[in-house]
Structures
1.
Amino acid sequence: MTYTLAELAARVGGEVEGDGAVRLERVRPLEDAGPGDVAFYSNRKYRHAFEVTKASAVIVGRDEKASPGRNLLRAGDAYLAFAKVSTLFHPPLQAMPEIAPEAAVHPTAKVHPSAQVMALACVGPGVEVGARTILHPGVVLEAGSRVGDDCVLYPNTVVREGCLVGNRCILQPGCVVGSDGFGFAFDMAGEEGSGPRHYKVPQSGIAVVEDDVELGANTCVDRATLGRTVVGRGAKVDNLVQIAHNVQVGPLCLLAGQTGIAGSTRLGMGVVCGGQVGIIGHLDIGDGAKFAAQSGVLGDVPPGEVYAGYPAEPVAEWRRNSVHARRLHELVKRVRQLERDLEKLKEGK
Amino acid sequence: MTYTLAELAARVGGEVEGDGAVRLERVRPLEDAGPGDVAFYSNRKYRHAFEVTKASAVIVGRDEKASPGRNLLRAGDAYLAFAKVSTLFHPPLQAMPEIAPEAAVHPTAKVHPSAQVMALACVGPGVEVGARTILHPGVVLEAGSRVGDDCVLYPNTVVREGCLVGNRCILQPGCVVGSDGFGFAFDMAGEEGSGPRHYKVPQSGIAVVEDDVELGANTCVDRATLGRTVVGRGAKVDNLVQIAHNVQVGPLCLLAGQTGIAGSTRLGMGVVCGGQVGIIGHLDIGDGAKFAAQSGVLGDVPPGEVYAGYPAEPVAEWRRNSVHARRLHELVKRVRQLERDLEKLKEGK
Amino acid sequence: MTYTLAELAARVGGEVEGDGAVRLERVRPLEDAGPGDVAFYSNRKYRHAFEVTKASAVIVGRDEKASPGRNLLRAGDAYLAFAKVSTLFHPPLQAMPEIAPEAAVHPTAKVHPSAQVMALACVGPGVEVGARTILHPGVVLEAGSRVGDDCVLYPNTVVREGCLVGNRCILQPGCVVGSDGFGFAFDMAGEEGSGPRHYKVPQSGIAVVEDDVELGANTCVDRATLGRTVVGRGAKVDNLVQIAHNVQVGPLCLLAGQTGIAGSTRLGMGVVCGGQVGIIGHLDIGDGAKFAAQSGVLGDVPPGEVYAGYPAEPVAEWRRNSVHARRLHELVKRVRQLERDLEKLKEGK
């Protein structure tokens, strides 16, 4: 597939500056791009690469300054325009309807005839797999789980018994839906006086992944103790994230890599966590709250707030304190000087 | 299975308040429960849900206040009573003795006739699998490993060569026992002068998971460089935890999600780590020590202590300092004021 | 295989002290070692174990003090000597050329005849597997990926479509190469006005793992949005590490467990990250920079620097501030005392 710049602009709702007839064959990064390539520029860090790129066209924001003579696709949201252009050049793979002979599909499972089950995928008893969904090798769907339409489950993902995955979901390799939550009651006496033990609390609930969710590689979503753990519609979760039992992740949340949400915490709509954020259990995080990377959240957070630090606090306060914390040794010197001066003053009396 | 409230109380060692004859069919959360349901209440955050629940009975602590007319199961440890009641309604699945035709079991492996090996599980040469143990699809037991009786290994767990898993262990999906420890010796010269390299230190020891241990989804327990990495009897480990080579996790430890224990560190009995705790290598952590979430532990810790922060310190000190740290900008202002006042005083002389 | 102490010394470039003819059969830890065992000592914490060990010989540094009568193998770099000695006793397993009948190898894949594909491994269309490479059970190589010579891919590792793994690489169980990067453009309008959504940015690049790299268990290396994510020659990566899209990890880097590197960040040669380090996106980290465990890196770092803390700063400054931070409550008291004294002085006037 190739497109003219004008065609691309029309498709993504942008405007052409320069030659709309230039033909584009590929999307490439600024620094590697050459003739026939369309590139993308927005982050100032890469300004030089933008200025010297050999790309035939570049997608930029509406007000971005550019040398004359460049072919540009200008859009109000350049990143979104780039994403759409790139999707034109890289359409998602379509399912090739088939159950591979090396797959293990239980006779009671209902796999939609348009779905694709690759070799060494395993579909358990009573499982339902929707239309056009692709199960890669090593995927395991356990008894009674359901996966909707138009999903892609990459290799070695696991959906445990009774759990639900909606439509248009993408599960990256190795991610786990429905592992047992971490719940134990301390039992001092133990079984027949055998001594103390951690008594396992049955995790008899399920995990629900709603429509349009993406879960990252090796990310874990625990099933609920009772009821449901939910990853809400359109939420996107990065790699190695831990979502504990009974957590409610609201619609459109973004959770970056290695974030952990402890049990029963509720994230509102559109909450954003940077990498390695930790949120303790039983909290209520308001719609649109945002957390800087590595924040440690120990209390409820109102809607729309931006927090940072440990314990996490509003980012303006965190910054103010953080600046002083990095000059703490100077403050100590000033206090010492004050003590000396005051001593002299007293003696001078 | 259904039970009367009186039967449940008798089974778990609690007392009935209200109607002991009420028949219970399910365990459900307070907010979803209705007739026929038994629920559980302990965390004050959910007081309102307790007050308005439609559950036929609620499990509560001995001294919990409740409106008259409620059917209650009172117990000294309400959470433990709940766990036991829930187990009555959700007994663990039993192995259905079978080796699935799609499993790959090496002829030299010894699988107990009462064990269940599901489709696409792989049992290597010389492996031993105990009585009533269940291997889910995608489980890989490598050469010479041993798994005891009454274990459940969920999909895609891996036990590498020679490693040992005890009795009554539960391995959540994707967890790994016996990956190589992270050990390299810097070799400036390299092979035949090929330049610097990290020379791999053979990780020829094993990992041992003792009886009654649970390992979380995608958790990793590295094998020892020499000797053994040990996860002690009855320890419970959450998802995405890293246990490095030669670590000794004592009996009954609780390690919450995304915690990491570096090489050769020894945790005593009953150590508790909140989420995302990090403990550096070669430390000695005393019995019953506890760490707040995200603590960074850089030195030995005596038994029974509660630590927090980075570097981790006794929690009382951490709290005291943490309060001041969040008001650091005020302190800076006070020092500035003092400097000004003192200056005036000097000039006034 | 057994060796005399003199043979071992000759093989690893060390010197014998004591009886070079003593015959050694095994490598064992100091505390477990007995006759026929060679042990290793370097960390002062284990001095006592060194003094009382029953090992027939011990590998130590050139200047290490030792009681007379000990058989020692002295080397300039004792740890490297130990690593080499241990390799003599534990040579890496060799591939046993075979494609197991329970493996699923696509007819268009090119598997070198000297490679070993174990049961339930899956090799997709157009995949190339090099000489003497071993694919353990549950390994999935997706369409068009390539794995070089002399690699070991442990169970359940995944290499997604088009990604490249060099020669002599080791992939620990469950690690993932080529998962989609975490890239979404916020789309306020949504598809045909269906409301806001996160529009997926195609991750059409690849991930490249160069020669002599080791990736830890359940570690994730995302494919690039465009172009390549690269883990450079000889880099060693521990368990549960997140390497985001378009990251460049330089040659010989060492990344300890649970470290996360956000998108497009470039690590120079030989960068070292302690455990649970986080580095935000689009940064430039100089050659040989080092980060203490749990550092949070928010800005570029010059070559050779050692950083710690959050936000990470040069370790000397971090230490200086950290000491004061732990005595912050004392500083507050001193300031209060100053305020009182000054008040008195004013009143005294």
2.
Amino acid sequence: MSAKDTDANKNYVCDLAQGAKRAGKLLAVSRGEQRSKALTTIAFNLREQADAIIQANKKDLDQGRKAGLSEAMLDRLGLDEERIGKMADSVEEIAQAADPVGQVIEGWTRPNGLVIHKLRVPLGVVAVIYESRPNVTSDAAALALKAGNAVILRGGKEAIHSNEAIVSAIRTGLAETGIPQDAVSFVDKTEHELVNELLKLDSLIDVVIPRGGESLIRAVVENSRIPVIKHYKGVCHVYVDAAAELEMAHQITMNSKVQRPGVCNAAETLLVHADIAEEFLPSVCDELAGAGVELRGCERSRELCRIIKAASEEDWSSEYLMLILNVKIVGTQAEAIEHINRYGSGHTDSIVTENIGAAEEFVAKVDSASVIVNASTRLSDGGVYGLGAEVGISTDKLHARGPMGAADLTTYKYVVYGQGHLRV
Amino acid sequence: MSAKDTDANKNYVCDLAQGAKRAGKLLAVSRGEQRSKALTTIAFNLREQADAIIQANKKDLDQGRKAGLSEAMLDRLGLDEERIGKMADSVEEIAQAADPVGQVIEGWTRPNGLVIHKLRVPLGVVAVIYESRPNVTSDAAALALKAGNAVILRGGKEAIHSNEAIVSAIRTGLAETGIPQDAVSFVDKTEHELVNELLKLDSLIDVVIPRGGESLIRAVVENSRIPVIKHYKGVCHVYVDAAAELEMAHQITMNSKVQRPGVCNAAETLLVHADIAEEFLPSVCDELAGAGVELRGCERSRELCRIIKAASEEDWSSEYLMLILNVKIVGTQAEAIEHINRYGSGHTDSIVTENIGAAEEFVAKVDSASVIVNASTRLSDGGVYGLGAEVGISTDKLHARGPMGAADLTTYKYVVYGQGHLRV
């Protein structure tokens, strides 16, 4: 790349980020009702402009087919009236949720009369870097706006036409409700180099959220001067304790693996306590195999179920995102917890048990963003938890962990009220 | 440096961090009363071993004098019985505070009966990299332990003997109360290269907190693969509004600048509304000058007070940490806010006013970690706010902002209780 191109890229992203920062400053002092109204208008526009969005999406699909994208990728890329309707529904749900901005998170009065408030305020400018799914465009924009932030969106190049059409519907909605259009800024050029230039702008952008495959996220982390909230893979476990209600365990196992195997909160490994393995495992393995699941397991599990193939060391830490499930029989709950903390990704892990002590130990010792008792791993989700929607599911421990909603795109300031108080 | 030295450094910090991680796992499931008892014992040991600590500190002071450290640095480095007593007091205060671990930050039940808890849990391993003040050793160790974390301490080489003696008192206290000594791990070699090796260990260390000059913090940010919570400089302002109670404004200005000028929450710039400048400024400038403060200001202020020298553009963004104060007369509050957001460091800014609208606008629009109404900037402090003590004052917006206490060294996990809930 020539020096001239590099300068052009630098100027392009710098202008974009400066516009976003200016818009963010205005948003930070906007009222919640104005932001809600903008979101309702955006939802309306998405539905009204569905035809234009579908036409743009056709271009992306055509180019994708020519470029040889897999059927699974084309499916994630594709939009129809129903999917656009769901995007609009999400934006409307976010519009109707309570305003996180201005919330007093904590407040107290010191013995000397000093009043201390921790007040929730917007972060400023949020950048979201993502891959093929166009619904991320409206979800991320809506959550950022809800929290009073400007957002810079950089989608995958395979979805560029779809994203442009969606952003156009969003920006029209902003203009109609008096919010600066740069509050939702879109990187409408596809050069890869632009991302690296963007990641240098730590004086303009407050946080970067990458959503996509592990290689995308690692590249962002390595090149960013801006703080990154990481969304790594989900290697999720279901542990069936000796005291499990076995019919419940059966259903939770099936649901965690089969209901939607291609997402991060689907289970990749089933751990079964030895005491109930003989009773529990054969029937669940039969039903899993019947649903098309390939089973890979430890030796003891293979003695009980012949359909289980041998699992390799690598399998235990693999995020399959498809119909493959690891199976392991453990002698103790301690062994299950050790396995999860060693091979898991700290995303979501479930225990099935009727024993309160076993549940308490699992909750205390499993070091994951979501630890679930007697329910499917698939429930680890911003919508299910009641956050309205989610920017993603953080596997980080700093700032936000697990499903991230609008409140996770805020910070706080200490506001202190004195009556002439001095330091003595 | 030879390859052999590099390997030795790598192995040294890796062993240290692995030990800390193991200790952190045990601490994470320890009880609050055990950690409190350890802290009380540590406070006792610090007092009991004061002589040994003072002897070790003498070595550092002797070497510092030979190396030509400034009197100010020697003063920060020096320990006597009183200072050690204060360190012990802090540890005791932290021991007696409420346990942040296990707190349910938020909890709710979804319409389908799913129970969602956000449970506060330790981060794991915290690394603190700091410069000369030995009291950081006991403060950081105590706050990390309170929050159930292991800590890795890397102090300045000029304080190595003092820090070793303090760490010895701490680790004896851990051993006496059944907590693994590696919960407080100390880098007892002074090679600079060790820090860079430490900053690569993102699988073992959860967060790095650098405390010291701007160059130290920038070096850590640039070299770290581990998330960093930054503690940059404090360019703090006092803004005296047209509706200020002038005697209060006078006292707050004096206290903010003079009470302890060498710290980050001391004021560097006084902004005065034009309407009251003539009445307010001359007398406060006389008293400031009488207290040894050098004044640098805008042209209008110099017309009112001849003792004010001309301020340069660079002065407005300088953290002096000494008896110098910038003075600027502003025509409107908007001008004051713009000045603060442009030249300030987002640390701490105060307004003095009796006008509720002016206070509300200032609180809403000044983008700083602490925004203070009618009190001294010097009150921006973990102890004053009631956090027990502080790891430092974060100028970041992610995870923790402003004074950081023990709770800011925690994360949370979602704990979800179902009764066989599945995703549909």
3.
Amino acid sequence: MKLQFKLEKKDTKTRGRIGTIIYNGREYKTPMFMPVGTNATVKTLSPEELKEIGSGIILANTYHLWLRPGEDIVAAAGGLHKFMNYDGPILTDSGGFQVFSLARPKDISEEGVLFKNHLNGDKLFLTPEKSIAIQNKLDSDIAMSFDECPPATADYEYLKQSIERTIRWAERGKKVHNNPNQMLFGIVQGGPHYDLRKFSALETVKIGFDGYAVGGVANDHESKEDMYKAFEYSTEFLPDEKLRYAMGIGEPIDLIEGVIRGIDLFDCVSPTRLARHGHAHTWHGKINVKNNKYKDMFKPIEEECNCYACKHYTLAYIRHLIVANETFGARLLSIHNIYFLHQLMAKIRENLESHTLEEFRDKFYQDYYGEK
Amino acid sequence: MKLQFKLEKKDTKTRGRIGTIIYNGREYKTPMFMPVGTNATVKTLSPEELKEIGSGIILANTYHLWLRPGEDIVAAAGGLHKFMNYDGPILTDSGGFQVFSLARPKDISEEGVLFKNHLNGDKLFLTPEKSIAIQNKLDSDIAMSFDECPPATADYEYLKQSIERTIRWAERGKKVHNNPNQMLFGIVQGGPHYDLRKFSALETVKIGFDGYAVGGVANDHESKEDMYKAFEYSTEFLPDEKLRYAMGIGEPIDLIEGVIRGIDLFDCVSPTRLARHGHAHTWHGKINVKNNKYKDMFKPIEEECNCYACKHYTLAYIRHLIVANETFGARLLSIHNIYFLHQLMAKIRENLESHTLEEFRDKFYQDYYGEK
């Protein structure tokens, strides 16, 4: 495996952990936020820009790359790193999340999932073996097991059966996994139910993976409480020395609450999606840059921010670009928003060091959301 | 005036000229191609990228900036350079080209032009005085006189009257021009008619401007022959020591033919527009990167090209980005296409030095268009 993880420290007041990822001779700190590059490109950004803003692992989507350009093209290019010119670590998801959103309940069987692809409506069948085979060819550094992603609000009986099948799928995937450079992660499901999360975690750990994810969060309109329970009930049964990854999480408060509950890695499309819609993170909340009041605001999004966008451009200019539908605007906001989340993770790590993460959480909540 | 022009050499075999533009302590060579940044951004690119690919003067559109964000916002930002963070030279057009495409013939009067703006249909009135006042506020380094742009195919009598009015408009504009940092250029019209071009050039030179443009080219489907006549008949009557600019020209062969006929500056949206449509310039013609045959072509657009896109990315990857509608693809192709035109201008200058520009033209034509 090209990627190594070393747990450095455990917080004494929360389940928070500080670790180091060693990759290609470089070190990256965890907890970490991972930007998403669905189509082997983090929307609007170059690999150099990602490095400049402090990105480590980035995520690419197996489902999208399977369909276009196809895993064989990426393999022939020499794998994802060479294809997209990114020499930092890359994680691929299993494709499950997209596939389940396209499939009808009756199209999910023990063997796999039948669905119509979103590009041309062709019927496709995805199985654990196929998902792993695609990811092996993409040659990411971390591959994910193929799991069913039932909504947190699914009924208990369905969740239980789904988890049991996901465990069988995890075993099938592990059996065919065949890329010595690549880690394979298992995924814990179980909604907000303690006994289901416990069962899923213990059984998945029994199979044995290089890291573990908390799945079934942020794919439905579950309550924050249920999301945090999912973190808490899952990490309780995960081994200390392995990475823990909460899938699809990018809302600032959820990153903090996730770390408090023992999560190391997070990913989300939100910073780049917010950017395309003209929104920017600030330490005092999200702002809509298109707002009229910014049209003659000749200062950066945040005075104290050191990102490229804030060092060289004013809110007035970025607003103009967004209003005029110029992609350089989305690029500047993407830089700022991802940089913001990386800075947030840095602050989280500092507060883990000083055992003040809960105080930081309370202060951040008040500053960012304007409430206690 | 912040921008200085020094004519260095005149070719002995053609009307081609080599010159130097001195600006902000930096030197730029002419003949030069100028990328277009309509909304105070060269689409998809950063100012740093423009500098890296060798851009000098860039163009911004007065009409677009007048409407959005408005010249007062740009002035309050400290002018275009500060607003868009570009410290190289900037040229603004007069807005005439856009306005005439939106106006009906009966809405053109001695006073100015009435038209409906393309954003919300509001009626607006643009005059020579207004155009210059807006450009003064934008604080570009070169402002253009407000001229009527009749198609080259307009009838002779109309062209004659239009030229006479354009000369009166040029005088009115010069009278109100009030920005000591800014050059003001006059514009020669007259379609493909020798006597009209001569009249327009001599009368415009009589008023006295800091440089001269050849207008009324590339705004209609005129023949190449007529376009080249317009260059030739105009530059014949223009003073050696002043810059000559052919507006809206970006097709490679036209750049060479323009230089042969005494032009120093060219601008066009074509390199960035081609990029957004997935096309790339190569020394053997334009290629459509979306073409299926590139899907597994793991080499750069051009092996010998030193642009960022060619140094780091394959045709297969860029094709994938364009097909997946990812803006990073348009960005890579924009970098390549503008770099290509800058390289073409460098080759043109080399061939001016060695008095071989016509031989270069013939060779280039064969290589690029596949014909003699």
